[in-house]
Structure formats: C-alpha cells, structure tokens
Design a protein that fits this description.
alpha/beta, four-stranded mixed beta sheet, two-stranded parallel ribbon, 6 strands, about 20% strand
Length: about 170
C-alpha cells in the first residue's frame, strides 16, 4: 500500500505518550524489543495499556484500543515464518504508551543477543508488511483473563480457532 509510513523514535516506546497527536495515522504498530527474565528467545505481539498502576508508561488503569485481528494475523504469520525456533507468543497487556488510536506492539525478545539477530528482525519486518497489505480476515474477538505474562494458555486459541484476542 502506498500510504504505509515508517517512523523511528529516540525515546523508549513505552514512554512515547500521545504519539497519535504528533503523527497522523489510523493505526500504530511499534516494532521493538522485549526483555524477559526467562531468557527464552521469542517473537511477541500485544496491546499496550495498564490494568493497574502505570509503571512502564501509559496511564493508570487505562487500556489502549487494541487490534485483535492484526495481532492474530501477525501471530499466525510469525508461526509461519519462524525458521529460527523462537517461541511465538501474545503477551498480556502490561505497559504504555497511551494512545487514543488502535495500537499494537510486535517485539523480539528476550535479550540483547536476540535483539541483534538479523533473521529475527527480518521475520518481524515481513510480518508487519503482511498484516498491512492483506485483506484482513474476519475473526471473532475476545479478551483473555488469567495466565502468565506470555499467555501460553491462549496460544492454541490463537493458532487453531477463528478467535482473535485483544487485551489479556
């Protein structure tokens, strides 16, 4: 599509509040990194927002407009392109920034070692271009309750049903 624009920002994305006021766009996709104490190499998607206190950007008790269909399509494409044996996950909603437009994160985790891998970056880039250029499938939409940070309990639903999950 001719109207896809790529921007880079110097700030940590989780603290880039109200980016939608500075950049005119219908949707926002942050391609970034994810740090995990488990050290499991991963490719992740998730919606930003905070269920409670905003400790990593965003606003207290404020969720952003999620993009469940885009996140599911990305999740499926990440599985398809995963030739590097990374874990593919949808994370729970857990940080900012706060935007008033639909927004999602797609990330490489979980340490500097994975972040610097060109093959992981290429998978993320191909996935983003895929979800921005396809005719988006129609999915049933749900939100998830429970599970761990990487929501492993919802992986089967995302991979094998017509259900897309927004916030968890």
């Amino acid at each position: 599509k001719d109207n896809i624009k790529i921007y880079t920002i110097k700030e940590r994305p989780v603290y880039r509040e109200n980016l939608d006021k500075d950049i005119e766009s219908d949707i926002f996709i942050f391609a970034t990194t994810h740090r995990s104490q488990t050290g499991i190499p991963s490719l992740c998607v998730h919606a930003p927002g905070n269920w409670g206190k905003a400790e990593l950007g965003g606003k207290n008790k404020q969720l952003c407009i999620s993009m469940p269909a885009y996140m599911k399509a990305a999740f499926i494409k990440l599985i398809e392109l995963n030739t590097i044996n990374f874990d593919i996950v949808q994370e729970c909603t857990h940080h900012g920034p706060y935007l008033e437009k639909p927004v999602m994160f797609i990330e490489i985790g979980s340490s500097e070692q994975e972040w610097s891998r060109k093959d992981a970056g290429e998978i993320i880039a191909k996935t983003i271009m895929h979800i921005l250029t396809i005719n988006m499938p129609k999915y049933e939409t749900a939100f998830g309750i429970g599970g761990q940070h990487t929501t492993t309990n919802f992986k089967n639903i995302l991979a094998n049903t017509n259900i897309a999950i927004g916030h968890v």
